[in-house]
Design goal:
The protein is 34% helix and 17% strand. The chain has 9 helices and 13 strands.
Length: 335
């Protein structure tokens, strides 16, 4: 939430960027010098009025804001609110606040990924009876450490997190596409088809089995059974069933976090995350948490908690009135 401080005046950042552009032109520097990244590095890490108001890079612009985390369910109903302030850092000394890099986007992703695991640990400690099975997050959470915690230490069985870079499998003769799906060795444009597998690993994740994209099941009248038949003109194996490729998610949780990217299941499930974004915007706009002209951190915390309580009361009232379409809409409910 952006704070009401001098550093958030557009003229503040524009003045620094303008000076750096003039410096680049005067020195005859090439395009390797980015005035915007240089401006980010030269700005103070926090506002002069309050050290809790940290410098951030959000939605393509620099700002100084308070940072907090919201955990919601699939309906966008708030379950927990965490404030990433001095008290949070003291309670989690394992979080190391490093120096700023030259990339504001990278710093933001790093900060988000560092805060996720402590936030979830605090949540499960407060609510031991809640055992969610599916996690939805953005690409900022794409790290091996987070996948390991979600799928092996916590109760999650699937983690829907977009990739924040390419993945690869060592010693694999099947190339992978951008979603981590194995492709035909002779035609990387053809992704292999996934088949269900009954085998499971110790961690509880299923073994993923992929078959030739040109394989079809055909019924044999003589045996009364169906069998796989490969119809590839240039097969990569002598097997009549075509190439089969097994993946063990336990060895690469980032590539295969209990689900496969780029599938219809992935697309339909990840759309649910829109509810989370709507809920956050609802807090900022409808509950007027954003755009506040105050620098008091305690006031902001109180407003956020009251906004969360208001949303939960709205859910309860909508449920009692059997108007579930208004569980996140207070105004239509009371109109």
């Amino acid at each position: 939430i952006e704070a009401w401080v001098t550093e958030n005046n557009p003229k503040y950042a524009n003045r620094i960027i303008k000076q750096l552009k003039a410096f680049k032109k005067a020195k005859g520097m090439d395009d390797s010098f980015d005035p915007y990244k240089a401006a980010y590095g030269s700005m103070p890490s926090h506002a002069a009025a309050n050290s809790a108001i940290q410098q951030m890079y959000i939605n393509g612009h620099f700002c100084y804001a308070y940072k907090f985390g919201i955990i919601t369910n699939g309906l966008g109903i708030v379950r927990d609110i965490s404030f990433y302030n001095k008290d949070f850092l003291e309670a989690h000394p394992d979080i190391i606040v490093g120096k700023k890099s030259d990339s504001p986007d990278e710093d933001k992703s790093l900060a988000d990924s560092k805060a996720l695991i402590p936030t979830l640990k605090d949540f499960f400690r407060k609510h031991p009876l809640i055992n969610p099975k599916t996690f939805l997050g953005d690409a900022a959470f794409d790290s091996s450490e987070i996948y390991k915690y979600l799928l092996q230490e916590a109760s999650f069985e699937q983690a829907y997190i977009p990739l924040n870079g390419r993945i690869s499998l060592p010693e694999s003769d099947c190339p992978l596409n951008k979603d981590g799906v194995p492709c035909c060795p002779k035609d990387p444009s053809l992704p292999m088809k996934r088949e269900g597998s009954k085998s499971h690993l110790r961690c509880g994740l299923p073994t993923m089995k992929f078959v030739c994209p040109k394989m079809k099941w055909e019924y044999d009248k003589t045996t009364g059974k169906s069998k796989r038949v490969c119809h590839c003109e240039n097969p990569c194996t002598e097997s009549p069933c075509g190439r089969m490729f097994y993946i063990y998610p336990e060895k690469n949780l980032r590539a295969y976090p209990g689900t496969v990217r780029g599938t219809a299941e992935w697309d339909s499930t990840y759309k649910i995350r829109v509810n989370v974004e709507k809920s956050i915007n609802h807090f900022k706009d409808s509950f007027c948490v954003a755009g506040r002209k105050t620098q008091n951190e305690k006031t902001l915390h109180a407003d956020l908690l009251l906004a969360g309580i208001t949303q939960l009361i709205t859910v309860m009232v909508a449920d009692k009135l059997r108007k579930h379409q208004y569980i996140r809409s207070l105004k239509p409910l009371i109109a």
